[in-house]
Write a structure and sequence with these properties.
By secondary structure, this protein is an alpha/beta fold. It is built from 14 helices and 18 strands. Bound molecules: zinc ion (ZN). Zinc ion binds next to loops.
């Protein structure tokens, strides 16, 4: 039993089954949704009531969690990552480079990745995200050397074991250096293998509807790292299987020039020509769009995964978040891969999004509340979901509770704003689908010290394999 305050109501005598017992997250210090100022009531894997300020729940309460020292938020939703890159953080040969030279330096290291290393990298990234208050993790895995044929199966196993919600994608690369592409030939696959594997994974793992814990999407690494046929066939398969589409787009000006040279058109025109400009798609970065492209993206309802830290580290540019949102795009947040970010901390990413947004727009346009919406509701929209990312009755019981008991918060007057302004980086408690996955800042069912030791060893082995 945790240290959570457990005061039983008189209704305890009715002894509800554990999955029907109600839990009131009672009177939080602050909450991101004003409708839930008195907390929320959870039954099973769902929120059943949002309690008004100073009020008591209308449903009978079996247990309470005293949240008077906690800031309550929906669990954060990450929309783009490359878990394997946690093994190549702050890697000297790739430091201080822009995207294309950064990529070509790292591809040679990533080409030696093994399944065991990927399993450790995925576990580490998921745990790191959970500890930052993230309840839904996304990954874009596109490196499939011979040793990594089961990469997505491995990630599904890890997510299930950690009981974290996961939006996994079957990435792909089919144009290697022999054909003028950036990646080494050993990590590209032929189109038939990619499509057959994509169909197998969707059939095996993709869950549909409310409360889905594992979803699959199709995700060519970028439009220029796969053939035109594979872009088109991926869109066709996604439609047939009713799954989402994901890729990197408009990250750098180099990419725009590359697409002009390769296809004779800008990245978004190519995306549209291959059947991808739709509300089934969410794009990582989405920086270099002109006004007409912003309008077209908004009309299509295409989602944008904004990755501020990665964009700053690689000097890629600033996403036009507010224009995209005004045009009709869901805008979410993402930490991106840990070789460019180099953290997997979504709470910290909110702070970066707020600071970068204010630099581009103004403090009154990019408020802390606005950024929290990106990291929750906006991110959920990118993943095509309305059952997560909020604290409304009927939504999934995915929540994050932050305490302001560190030196960095001392003296703060507005607890919600303090999370972003003072730099929250670690949640005290995190619940996924009604299940506490972080308690007192510690991930559950994980030996964190042992994981860090094994992960560090794997990173050393990967670097020395070069
Ligand atoms: Zn990425």
């Amino acid at each position: 039993m945790s240290h959570a305050a457990s005061s039983m109501s008189p209704d305890q005598a009715s002894s509800p089954t554990p999955d029907q017992a109600t839990l009131w997250i009672r009177q939080p210090l602050a909450v991101s949704d004003p409708d839930a100022a008195g907390g929320i009531v959870i039954r099973g894997d769902r929120i059943v009531e949002a309690v008004a300020a100073g009020a008591s729940p209308t449903v009978a309460i079996d247990r309470t969690f005293d949240a008077s020292r906690h800031v309550l938020m929906p669990g954060l939703v990450n929309t783009h990552h490359h878990f394997y890159q946690t093994l190549t953080r702050a890697y000297s040969p790739a430091l201080n480079k822009e995207l294309f030279p950064w990529l070509t330096t790292l591809y040679d290291v990533w080409a030696n990745l093994t399944e065991d290393q990927l399993a450790l990298a995925s576990e580490l990234a998921m745990v790191e995200l959970l500890m930052s208050g993230c309840t839904t993790v996304a990954d874009h895995h596109y490196v499939f050397s011979g040793a990594l044929e089961s990469a997505i199966d491995v990630q599904v196993d890890t997510a299930r074991r950690l009981k974290v919600r996961a939006a996994l994608t079957r990435g792909s690369m089919s144009v290697g250096r022999d054909d003028g592409g950036l990646p080494p030939q050993s990590v590209v696959q032929d189109e038939t293998t990619i499509l057959d594997e994509s169909a197998r994974l969707i059939d095996a793992y993709h869950q549909r509807g409310e409360g889905a814990m594992v979803t699959l999407a199709l995700a060519p690494c970028s439009p220029f790292s796969v053939s035109r046929e594979l872009m088109q066939e991926s869109a066709r398969l996604a439609e047939e299987k009713d799954v989402r589409l994901h890729t990197h787009l408009a990250e750098t000006e180099d990419e725009t020039a590359y697409c002009q040279k390769l296809f004779g058109m800008r990245p978004l025109d190519y995306l549209e020509a291959t059947g991808w400009l739709s509300n089934r798609t969410w794009l990582a970065h989405g920086i270099h769009f002109n006004d007409d492209e912003v309008t077209r993206l908004g009309r299509a309802g295409t989602g944008i995964a904004h990755c501020p830290s990665s964009n700053m580290v690689l000097g890629s540019g600033m996403c036009r978040t507010l224009e995209l949102e005004a045009a009709g795009c869901p805008v979410g947040l993402a930490v991106d891969g840990s070789a460019s970010a180099d953290h997997s901390n979504l709470a910290e990413e909110m702070r970066q999004a707020m600071l970068l947004g204010r630099l581009r727009y103004s403090p009154s346009q990019v408020t802390h509340q606005h950024v929290i919406r990106w990291a929750t509701e906006g991110s959920a929209g990118c993943l095509g979901r309305s059952d997560i990312g909020g604290l409304k009755p009927g939504q999934q019981a995915d929540i994050a509770l932050f305490k302001l008991d560190e030196a960095r918060f001392s003296g703060a007057e507005n607890p919600l704003a303090a999370l972003l302004l003072c730099g929250a980086h670690r949640a005290d408690r995190v619940m996924v689908a009604g299940d506490w996955r972080v308690v007192d800042g510690q991930p559950q069912d994980v030996d964190l010290d042992a994981l860090l030791a094994r992960h560090d060893q794997a990173a050393r082995a990967l670097r020395s394999a070069l």
